[in-house]
Amino acid sequence: MELITVKDKQFKPYIGEDKIQSAIKGLAVNINIDLRDEFPLFVIVLNGSFMFAADLLKEVHIPCEISFIKVASYHGTSSTGTVTELVGLAEDVTNRTVVIVEDIVDTGATLEKLHAILIKRGVKAIKVATMLLKPDAYKKPIPVNYAGIEIPNDFVVGYGLDYDGQGRNLKDIYVLA
Ligand code: 5GP
Question: What pTM did the predictor assign?
Answer without folding.
Answer: 0.93
